[in-house]
Each structure stands twice: as C-alpha cells, then as structure tokens.
Amino acid sequence: MPEGDTVYREAFHLNQALQGAIVTGWDIRVPAFATSDLTGERIDGVASRGKHLLHRVGDFTLHSHLKMEGSWHLYRPGSPWKRPAFQARAVVTTADWVSVGFDLGVVELIPRAEEETAVGYLGPDLLGADWNSDEAIARLTAAPEVPAAVALLDQRNLAGLGNVFANELCFLRGVLPSRPIGETDVPAMVALSSRLILANRDRVERTTTGDTRPGRKVWVYGRAGKPCLRCGTRIRAGKLGQDELSLRDTYWCPRCQS
Fold first, then answer.
1. How deeply is 43 buried, as exposed, middle or buried, from its count of CB atoms within 10 A (0-12, 13-18, 19+)?
2. Which of 2, 124, 147, 177 is catalytic?
3. 2 counts as catalytic
4. d(Cα 65, Cα 204) in Å, to the nearest integer?
5. pLDDT tens per residue, range 221-249
C-alpha cells in the first residue's frame, strides 16, 4: 500500500533518472490534460510531498497521487512494461528513460507557480525538508476528541502516514485506534511517527516490527483473528473515519492496547 515512504522512494528514483533531462514524449491519459504537450521542456526534478508526487517540468508541475493501487515505473526505451498499457495514466519520455504512472488516483497538470493549490493544505511532511514536530503536535491537539487513528491519517496534521502506519503506531504506543488523540501522549506519538517512517524510507519491504520474515513484518495491520506477536491475544478489527465515506480498516490487540 503506497504511503509516504513508498512515494518518497519513487520520487527519489524518478528524480535520479529524469532530473535535467529534456522531454521527448508526453502522454497524459486523462481527458482534462490529454491535449497537453511539454515535449522539449526540461525536467527540473521530481519530488514527493507527503503521499503526493510532483514532476516539475518547465513552467508546470505534473501532480499525481498514487491512492491505493498507483505506482510509477521506469523503463528503458523499447523495454516491455510490467503492467498493462490500459492502466497507464501518464507517460513521460526522455532520451534515456520512459516514466509510466499506472493506476494513478490523481493526475493533473498545474502551473508551477500554483503548486501550493494542490499540496498547500498538507501538514508538515514527515520525510520533507519542512518537517516540524512542534507544528504537527499543535495540529493534532487542536481537535483532541478525534480518534487517534483518524487524527494520524489526516494529512492536514502531518503528511505521509497511511493506514498501515496509523494502525501500527497505535499498537506501538499501546493505545486503541478509537482512543481520542487528546488522551494520548501526542509528542511521543509524533516522535515515533517520524522514527518509524524514516526507518522505512529506504527499505523495499516495509516493516514496523524490525522483522522482514513473512507474517512478521507488522504487529496488527491486516492480522484480524491472528495471535498478537507480543502476547498471543487474537487481533480484532473494525472501521473508523471522519465520516461514513472515509471509513478505514483498523486493527488492535485488546490486551496490549487500551
């Protein structure tokens, strides 16, 4: 599942391959931007912001969000793609590389000067140069009644955490996902959020337990009905969200969390 660590790695590799190159092919496969053409423009760089990815090309930014299934791939010209062409939403070609965005949840082309209209609402980026733990703490505590998992997932509080990290953080801090964030040690939660996502930033396989063996990479996420890796109690599951349309799966150990 793409979260801030995944998007950071994709942006890093895309930037290594594309920065400074000239666009030789431009194909945006969404109706609103299908006629756009930045062929001949220079790619100034590719960066991540939370779970958003930004290709900065000439005077424009190609803004994408991976959502649940999206990914960006790099191929040498003429090489076969690993996913079907009908899943491609954006194809950016240079002399040396073909960058393909598959199943992207958001694809839009915006003037570079207006980039903040797409990502300006985000809180401090856990993996960004703007990371500010004090600001993240202030945002989380501004609505103390919000369930901890919901508050951690709100990208306006701190950018980069997805559902895997939110559930795992609640377990590691010993709090139920439904517990109001104001009843938790918010500074400790923020500090652990930073350490955990940073530890996974350069890993191909995410782990919150420190163990990369199958079935042992996470404490609770996706493990409903299985024994807790710490105490053996069966993991429970439920749903939480800001409203009915934003419900997300939650997992917890009824013994280790309260």
1. buried
2. 2
3. yes
4. 19
5. 999 999 999 999 999 999 999 988 889 99
Check the CA dihedral 71-121-197-9 and report its sign: positive
Does some domain include residue 128?
Answer: no
3 given a catalytic annotation: yes
Sheet hosting strand 88-93, strand order edge to edge: 25-28, 88-93, 98-102, 71-75
Reported as a single tens digit per residue, the pLDDT across 200-222 is 999 989 999 999 999 999 999 99
Note the pLDDT tens digit of each residue in 139-169. 999 999 999 999 999 999 999 999 999 999 9
Are 185 and 106 within one domain?
no
Tokens, residue 180:
């109001």
* Marked catalytic residue, from 10, 51, 124, 177: 51
Query: Packing angle between helix 186-200 and helix 133-141, nearest 10 degrees?
Result: 130
Q: What angle do CA 173, 176, 181 make, to 5 degrees?
A: 75
Residues 210 and 109 in one domain: no
Residue 118, phi then psi, degrees to nearest 5: -95, -35
Question: Model-level pTM?
Answer: 0.94
- 27 three-class SS: strand
Q: Which CATH number goes with the domain that contains 239? A: 1.10.8.50
pLDDT of 1: 66
User: Could you tell me if 153 and 88 lie in one domain?
Assistant: no
